[in-house]
Amino acid sequence: MTRTLGIASPLTVSSMGLGCMGMSEFYGAPDEASGLDTIRRALDLGITLLDTADMYGPFTNERLVGRAIAGRRDEVQLATKFGNKRGPSGERLGIDGSPEYVRAACDASLQRLGVDHIDLYYQHRVDPSVPIEETVGAMAELVAAGKVRHLGLSEASASTIRRAHAVHPITALQTEYSLFTRDLEDEILPTIRELGIGLVPYSPLGRGILTGRLTAESMAHDGDARASRYFPRFQGEALEANLRLVAQVEAIAARKGVTPGQIALAWVLAQGEDIVPIPGTKRVVYLEENAAALNVELTPDELAALEAAVPRGAVVGSRYGDMSHIDQG
Question: Pfam families recorded for this chain (predicted)?
Answer without folding.
Answer: Aldo_ket_red (PF00248)
